[in-house]
Amino acid sequence: MKSRQNYSATRRSYDLKEENTPINAAKEKAARQELAVDTLEDQLKLTDASFDPNSEDLLQGWWANSANILCINCYPNGITLSQHRPKGESDLSAEHSELALRPHHFYLRYRDMREYLLPEGKYFLYKEDYLVQLEDHLSQMRKSGLLEKTVVILGNTADPFFALNKKFEVTMNCLGLLENYKPGLVVLQTRSPMVIAALPFVKCLEDRTVVAMCVETFREDVISRYTPGQATIRERLVACEGLRAQDLKVQLVVSPILPYGDYYRDAWKFAEILNRHADYISVGCLASGLQSDEVALRSLPLAQKLEADGHLKILRPHAYRHLYYVLKNAYAEKLKTPVNDLKAQPAQLNLFAA
């Protein structure tokens, strides 16, 4: 009840602040002048010419300097676990570069996208005694010295805070274990404002946790059209304000990016909103850019609906590039994920080698 009261109070203060905080048109104009961009056509040309898909901002996730990634996904009747070894381009031969882990491999998916772009790793399903099994995994990692070098991602195929009573109980039980074991970093990914109910656990983890809230667009009509049943963008940002008021770090994840208006003009408005409510910002899209993923992409109900509505640009690789261009030039510091060096010694990695 206390967390719901905090959420309501935060919402009231946020509503008032929103009414009196216009989009910073002056900053947009100044940025355009500094970059010698006078028209939208100029911006389009500059965006396409300067965009680098291999920029560190786009390739570095929270797990970048970790030795191990543990993903936990909660369901009403149990959990799934998956373990992954971070691999970069330098770890792979040219013909296997597509196996390198990217941030989009670990972003929170929609329900009908759970199997799409799953990263290579070991996967486990526990329906009975899930807490015992999870504790066993955490205990083994602690004994091996790997736990403090592990990034735990809570929610990459299922939203841990989606409003289902039994599922919510499973999530809170898992958080209780994470609080006791304290891995190197815990990333809570969600689209639900109910993440604020996890405040007691999150505050106990202190600087070992970050909340990653998905904000695919700033348009409520787009959310209603393509992701019915999900919390509104306003509700998500209210929760973010509440978390930041408690000195917790919040990342806004624009993935998969959805239509937000004019791809060039409204990118400035979208970027301003993201900057106002986030400590960190990351972007991603539906298309991986790999030919081998094209069939899977076109089979997604979301992709089919976007195509039927004529939003073909959103289905292209790097569909976020115009928004990224603005973020890079106006709020570059928000794109840098402050990853810690969590790498282990080679001998410790053998325990989880595939």
Short description:
With 354 residues, the protein is α/β, with parallel strands linked by helices.
Please characterize this protein's 3D structure.
The radius of gyration is 20 Å and the shape is globular. Strands 3-2-1-4-5-6-7-8 form an 8-stranded mixed beta sheet. The longest helix has 18 residues, at 2-19. The termini are far apart. Mean pLDDT is 83; it is low at 1-21, 89-97 and 345-354. β5, α7 (199-205) and β6 form a beta-alpha-beta unit. Helix content is 40%, strand content 13%. α1 (2-19) crosses α9. It contains 14 helices and 8 strands. The chain has one domain. It has helices at 2-19, 25-34, 40-50, 56-59, 130-144, 165-181, 199-205, 220-226, 233-245, 265-277, 294-298, 301-308, 321-330, 346-349; strands at 68-75, 78-84, 122-126, 150-154, 185-190, 209-214, 250-254, 280-283. The protein is of the alpha/beta class.
Task: Write a concise keyword list for the protein shown above.
globular; alpha/beta; 14 helices; eight-stranded mixed β-sheet; 354 residues; 8 strands
Summed up, the helix count is: 14
Shape: globular
- Rounded to the nearest angstrom, the radius of gyration is 20 Å
Low-confidence stretches: 1-21, 89-97, 345-354
Biggest sheet, spatial arrangement of strands: 3-2-1-4-5-6-7-8
Mean pLDDT: 83
Total beta strand runs: 8
Helix content: 40-55%
Structural class by helix and strand composition: alpha/beta
The fraction of residues in strands falls at 5-15%
Could you describe the largest sheet, including whether it forms a barrel? Answer: 8 strands, mixed
Number of domains: 1
End-to-end CA span: 44 Å
| Element string (H = helix, E = strand) | HHHHEEEHEHEHEHHEHEHHHH
